[in-house]
Design brief:
It is flat, with a radius of gyration of 50 Å. The relative contact order is 0.07. By secondary structure, the protein is mainly α. The protein contains six helices and no strands. The longest helix is centred in the first third of the chain and has 106 residues. 95% of the residues lie in helices and 0% in strands. The two termini are 45 Å apart. The protein folds into two domains: 211 residues, Helix Hairpins (Orthogonal Bundle), CATH 1.10.287; 252 residues, no CATH class. Keywords: Coiled coil.
Length: 520
């Protein structure tokens, strides 16, 4: 009896649920129809809105053209007004001349014939001027009429634009209301579809229960035992997943520490870049000092030439000694030139090495960018596991620092190019001064030279050569330091490569574990 009563109750429930599901389906169909009608209205209003925008843009263009035409008409009117003023002034002048000539005619009877001719000419000219004035007046009236027409057109266009803007604002409000209604309908449809699915599931479950009621109680107990076993297995798998999550958290902490190390390396590179900037500034100052010393040597050479021309009267032995000393110093100058060229070549090689290092840094930055994308994917997975959002802000700060480093590298490239240009100019000046000195020595072979002035000159040249040697030694030390820095950077790049490979392996392992977890 109890079983039959339960079966009757469940059958009544099934009938009720079936009827309610049919009602909900009808409601859903009605809502879908209303949704489609509202979508059609929304699309139509969108099309009308786009058409109105096109019309307003066209009217704005017409308004601009009308304003330009108004400006041109105003300019023409001003030109015509100026011409009318000039013509009126000329008319007054002609009238004054005519009156003066009439006075002269009354006083002198002998020149009456000539005056009559002049009067006739003046009358003809006055008539012509009057006709021109009438034409200008007509032109002025026409321009005024055109100006009034343009004013009326511009006022009409302004009114049309205002009306169109009001219509557009109204339609924007209507569109916003329609959009909100569409969203509400979407939510209602979604909720009702969920409720329908739930009720359909309930109906299916009730039908299954009706079929299962005919099965024996022993089978139900057996299923309950199997369900308990499955729950135990699920609990075990849940414990395993928790352990895996703990491992993933530990790996995430390790990667965070590696990112801190990368940040420290970036700070060290910033410091080295600052040191290089200071060295570049010092080298540029040295180049300026070299230019000043070269200018002073030029002035000294000119003074010595003047002294050579003024002073005469020494023996040929001194000339031979001076020539011997000159040849020896020329040889020293050539050796110094060779050394300077070698140093310039070394600087070029160092520049090429720096460019290679910069290219390597750019490649590593690209790899770091790819690594950052991978880290972002990891962060997404971690967000799924409900981790904190602090890692994202840290990665964004790292990106900003990398961008700042790239800008700094570009500035260093520009400064290095400027320094190389200054070095090339200094070498060219050095060669030109050397050629001038050789030509002057050749021209002064026949003249007699003062020993003391020549010795002073030689001492000055020796001091300049020693300064150049010291500067070259400083450049070699700078080059050695740059090479040392290059080696350090290469070592750091290699270590970073190893770390990136390790991180990529860890990422692949993490992705595999996450996929396994999703499958479970």
């Amino acid at each position: 009896n109890s079983y039959e009563s339960n079966a009757q109750i469940e059958s009544t429930r099934n009938i009720y649920l079936h009827n309610s599901s049919n009602e909900l389906k009808l409601k859903q169909s009605d809502l879908q129809n209303s949704y489609y009608t509202l979508l059609d209205k929304f699309n139509r209003s969108k099309d009308e809105y786009s058409k109105l925008i096109q019309i307003t843009n066209f009217e704005y263009l017409n308004l601009d053209q009308v304003l330009l035409e108004q400006k041109t008409v105003n300019n023409e009117i001003q030109i015509l007004i100026n011409l009318l003023g000039e013509k009126s002034n000329l008319k007054l002048k002609y009238e004054e001349d005519f009156l003066s000539e009439l006075k002269i005619q009354s006083n002198t009877n002998s020149k009456s014939i000539q005056n009559s001719k002049k009067i006739s000419k003046l009358t003809i000219q006055i008539k012509d001027r009057e006709e021109m004035l009438l034409k200008f007046e007509k032109m002025f009236k026409q321009a005024v009429l055109q100006f009034e027409q343009y004013r009326e057109i511009s006022s009409i266009l302004k009114n049309d634009i205002e009306e169109n803007t009001t219509c557009l604002n109204d339609q924007e409000v209507i569109l916003s209301t329609l959009h909100s209604e569409l969203k509400k309908l979407d939510l209602d449809i979604h909720n009702e579809s969920k409720s329908i699915l739930k009720k359909e599931k309930i109906i299916m479950i009730t039908t299954e229960k009706e079929e299962e009621n005919f099965i024996k109680i022993d089978e139900v107990q057996y299923k309950i035992e199997e369900a308990q076993k499955e729950t135990e297995l699920i609990n075990k798998s849940w414990v395993q997943n928790q352990n895996q999550n703990v491992q993933l958290m530990n790996k995430r902490d390790e990667q965070y520490n590696e990112l801190k190390n990368v940040h420290s390396i970036a700070l060290v590179l910033d410091r080295k870049n600052r040191i290089l900037n200071r060295e570049i500034i010092s080298l540029s100052q040295q180049v300026v000092q070299h230019e000043r010393t070269l200018d002073t040597t030029k002035k000294n050479l000119l003074r010595l030439e003047e002294n050579f021309c003024k002073k005469e009267g020494k023996s040929s032995e001194l000339l031979n000694e001076n020539e011997y000393l000159r040849h020896s110093y020329i040889v020293e100058l050539k050796e110094n030139e060779k050394q300077s060229l070698e140093h310039a070549n070394q600087l070029k090689l160092l520049k090429n090495e720096l460019n290679e290092i910069k290219n390597l840094c750019a490649e590593k930055e690209r790899e770091s960018l790819s690594w950052e994308t991978k880290v972002q994917t990891l962060v997404e997975y971690k967000n799924k596991i409900k981790l904190k959002d602090s890692d994202l802000s840290y990665i964004e700060t790292k990106k900003k620092e990398i961008h700042r480093m790239q800008i700094r590298e570009k500035q260093l490239k520009k400064e290095s190019k400027k320094i190389m240009k200054n070095l090339e100019l200094s070498l060219l000046r050095h060669t030109s001064i050397y050629n001038k000195a050789v030509s002057k020595f050749d021209s002064l072979k026949g003249n007699k030279i003062n020993i003391q002035s020549f010795l002073k000159k030689l001492e000055n040249l020796r001091s300049a050569i020693e300064k150049k040697k010291k500067e070259c030694e400083g450049l070699t030390t700078c080059a050695n330091n740059l090479q040392h820095n290059k080696l350090e950077l290469e070592c750091k790049v290699a270590s970073l490569n190893v770390k990136t490979t390790n991180v990529e392996k860890d990422i692949s392992d993490l992705t595999a574990t996450i996929k396994d977890l999703e499958r479970l």
